[in-house]
Each structure stands twice: as structure tokens, then as C-alpha cells.
Design goal:
Blueprint (H helix, E strand, L loop, with lengths): L6 H6 L7 E2 L2 E2 L1 E2 L10 H14 L9 H21 L6 E4 L2 H16 L5 E5 L8 H10 L2 E5 L9 H8 L4 E7 L11 H10 L3 E5 L11 H4 L3 E5 L10 E5 L1 H5 L11 E4 L4 E3 L13 H15 L3 H20 L4 E4 L8 E6 L4 H9 L3 E2 L1 E3 L4 H7 L4 E5 L6 H18 L1
Parallel strand pairs: 3-15, 5-6, 5-7, 7-8, 8-9
Antiparallel strand pairs: 1-2, 4-10, 9-10, 11-12, 13-14, 14-17, 16-17
Bound molecules: pyridoxal-5'-phosphate.
The site of pyridoxal-5'-phosphate has 12 residues, from helix 4.
């Protein structure tokens, strides 16, 4: 186990970081969109296809047993990492599917017309649209908890919203993908619980930034995507509390999720199988297990401290640039810097940076209501992972200086 944070050694684990684009070495600063993959994950997937590929569930030959045990092991690694039990870990395609599962299976069957779901201004569309679909289907209401100027949640306003007896569910992001705000979910979940409100935490952006202890957070549901945490795309997890999952109907029907089927009537398997119809993304689950094992072997506190140092360096460097505004300055924010520059469209900023080998993202980041609240249509966003370096941040600042000079 690595006990201190050795950046060079960590960077060596991620082969793509050695690549060059446009004649410049890659500075990958788009980690909030997706993360790069370490050899441990790439090798686990290649090994699965080279040596052990078979379908899972019910295979009685040795090859299938190997796949089955790798799949079971992955679920156990993830459950242990989150401090929950394997029956509470449902494999899904990603955060989006996880939130849709909660909306369609839990909210659609447990909420009634007039009940209220509370979201926040900073939510990703993946945590807005599933509830809007339930609204159309059942007549629930959606209310929005506002944010303060620095991008943190207005906690008083949230409590006032939660005080309404019709509020039945609160769904909010742990970390905002656009602002970097880290919501104090332990306290917020406790406040919701006091009022009997079911809690859903969108962990898409928090899962890669430090240890997650779901026993401590104590939310009812937690969703994340593998690709944001150094694992493949097309795999993710919905955690749900055992009692709630047991009382939820299937989300989709098909193979591998039943107890007994006749043409007249079907009985379903218990969770998590009840929610995993069809052949699962076995390679994805194995890759996700490998990614979680990989980060489990890092000193996550040291990695988080390194990310915070990068954030501080980037913030200081960008704040000093003329006409540049950083959106989101909540205390303790994650390593995400969203910014605009007077007179330069965010897409032009990204194109200029691309010429320097620097990859950032621009647009509304699937947060159009937040952009509307900020009075802008898009931002440029640099987002850091523990494998980024001070040199890369310095290149970002220098390239932005050059970009601004070009437009003057
Ligand atoms: N929620 C947040 C906060 C996100 O940042 C994202 C992706 O950027 C999602 C949800 C959706 O994740 P996915 O597209 O992997 O399902």
C-alpha cells in the first residue's frame, strides 16, 4: 500500500497521460467529465477477455465460475469501499440510470399527487429530468432549494423547504460539477431524516475526490458512475438502504431478476438482482472493482490534499487574469474551476487551450438552470484529478494569459 502521495509514480499508472496532442504533451484537465484509467483497470478488463470471459449467473463450467467470482468480488470491493453490504449495491449504467431507477421504482410508487420533491439550483440535468418524468406521471411537485452568491447551498432556505409536510424526498448532488461546491451531506441528510424525508445523494462528482462512508452519510440512496472514478464507461452503482430496496418494484423486466416465471405471474428475486435485468456489464463491474481497489491502495487523504493544492494554485493564477471571473467559491470546494472571460466565448477559450495541448470543457455542463441563475449561458471549466501536476496548472494559467492577449 502507498502511504504517501508519490505523484510521479501515480502518473506512471495512467498511460494516456504520456500522450501528446497538437505537438504538446497532454494536460488533461477535464476530469469532471470523465477520468482517465490506470493500468490496473485496463489490465483487469483485458485479462477478463483474454482469460475468463463467460456469462455470469448459473454457468456450471470452470470458465463461467471464474467470471462469476470476479463479478461477485467486484461488488464486494465496492460495498466495502462504501461501508455498506453487497445486497445494497445495484450495478447500473451510471449515475443517470441510478437516479432514474430511484425515480421510477421508488418515487413513482411511493409518492402521490401533491407530494413534493426538493432539488437544488446546482443540480445536473441527470438529477432534474428523472423527477420531472415522475411529476408528469404522478402529479408530484418539484421545489428548488436556492444557492448563495458563493455557490453554497442556502441552508436556512433548505430547512424552510423541508419543513413543509408535503416534502417527501430530497435529491441533491454531493459535489457540484459546475461550481465545485461540496454539500455537507451528513448534516443535510440528518436534517431531512428528522423530518421523515427520504434522501438521494448524487455522488457522481464526489466518488473520485476522497473516501465515501455511506454509514456516516446515512442517505437512503447514493448514485455514482464508474467512468468518473477511473473505471470504464457504462457501469455505475446505485446504493439503496436494504429496507427501501426490499419495498421497491423492479425497474426493468428480463432475465436474471426473477424467482419464478409463468405466463400468468412472476415473482422477483430479492435486491440487488431484482434491479439488474439482463446480462450485466461484467467487464465494467470488474473494471470498477479494479478502480476501487486501485484508489483503495492510495493514500486518499494525501491525494485529496494534492488536489486542493492544485485548486489553490489555479484559483490564485486565474483570479489574477484581467476580465476573468470564477463561478463558485464555496468554502472547502472541490478541485473544479468554472470561469468566464469578458469578451471571449468559452468555446474559443477551449479551442485556444487545445492548441497548447490542454483539455478543458466548456458549455452549460448539463446545468442549464444553474447557468440561468448565474445569468450566463456557459463557462469554461478546468477540473483536476490527483494525477494532475503543478506544471499542468501553470501551463493552464500561461495559456489563458496568451488567449486573453490574443483578444485584446
Ligand atoms: N450528476 C453529476 C453531478 C454529474 O457531474 C454527472 C456527469 O457529469 C451526472 C450526474 C451524470 O453522470 P453520467 O452521465 O455518468 O450518468
Amino acid at each position: 500500500m502507498t502511504t504517501t502521495f508519490d505523484l510521479e509514480s501515480v502518473r506512471g499508472d495512467f498511460p494516456i497521460l504520456e500522450k501528446s496532442f497538437r505537438g504538446k504533451s497532454l494536460a488533461y484537465l477535464d476530469n469532471a467529465a470523465t477520468s482517465q484509467k490506470p493500468n490496473a483497470v485496463i489490465d483487469a478488463i483485458a485479462n477478463h477477455y483474454r482469460n475468463s470471459n463467460a456469462n455470469v449467473h448459473r454457468g456450471v463450467y470452470a470458465l463461467a465460475e471464474g467470471t462469476e467470482s470476479a463479478y461477485v468480488h467486484a461488488r464486494k470491493v465496492i460495498a466495502d469501499h462504501l461501508a455498506v453490504s453487497t445486497e445494497e449495491i445495484i450495478f447500473v449504467r451510471g449515475t443517470t440510470e441510478a437516479l432514474n431507477l430511484v425515480a421510477q421504482s421508488y418515487a413513482r410508487t411511493h409518492l402521490n399527487e401533491g407530494d413534493i420533491v426538493v432539488l437544488t439550483t446546482m443540480e445536473h440535468h441527470a438529477n432534474i429530468l428523472p423527477w420531472q418524468l415522475v411529476k408528469t406521471q404522478t402529479g408530484i411537485e418539484i421545489e428548488i432549494s436556492p444557492i448563495l452568491e458563493d455557490g453554497s447551498l442556502d441552508r436556512d432556505a433548505l430547512c424552510a423547504l423541508l419543513d413543509q409536510p408535503k416534502v417527501k424526498l430530497l435529491s441533491l448532488c454531493h459535489v457540484s460539477n459546475s461550481l465545485g461546491t461540496v454539500n455537507p451531506v451528513v448534516e443535510i441528510v440528518a436534517e431531512a431524516k428528522e423530518r421523515g424525508v427520504v434522501t438521494v445523494v448524487d455522488g457522481a462528482q464526489s466518488i473520485s475526490h476522497g473516501p465515501i462512508d455511506l454509514r456516516e452519510i446515512d442517505c437512503d440512496f447514493f448514485a455514482f458512475s464508474g467512468h468518473k472514478v477511473f473505471a470504464p464507461m457504462g457501469i455505475g452503482v446505485l446504493y439503496g438502504k436494504r429496507d427501501l430496496l426490499a419495498d421497491m418494484p423492479p425497474y426493468q423486466g428480463g432475465g436474471d431478476m426473477i424467482d419464478e416465471v409463468t405466463f400468468e405471474k412472476t415473482t422477483f428475486a430479492p435486491p440487488p438482482q431484482r434491479f439488474e435485468a439482463g446480462t450485466p456489464n461484467v467487464e465494467g463491474a470488474i473494471g470498477l472493482g479494479a478502480a476501487i481497489e486501485y484508489i483503495g491502495n492510495l493514500d486518499l487523504a494525501a491525494a485529496a490534499a494534492h488536489e486542493q493544492a492544485l485548486l489553490e494554485q489555479a484559483t490564485d493564477g486565474l483570479e489574477a487574469l484581467p476580465g476573468l471571473t470564477i463561478h463558485g467559491s464555496a468554502p472547502g470546494k472541490a478541485a473544479v474551476v468554472s470561469f468566464t472571460i469578458d469578451g471571449i466565448h468559452p468555446h474559443d477559450i477551449a479551442t485556444f487551450l487545445d492548441a497548447e495541448g490542454i483539455a478543458i470543457r466548456t458549455g452549460h455542463h448539463c446545468c442549464q438552470p444553474l447557468m440561468e441563475h448565474l445569468g450566463i449561458s456557459a463557462t469554461a471549466r478546468a477540473s483536476f484529478a490527483f494525477y494532475n501536476s503543478k506544471e499542468e496548472v501553470a501551463r493552464l494559467v500561461e495559456a489563458l494569459k496568451k488567449t486573453i492577449a490574443c483578444f485584446q
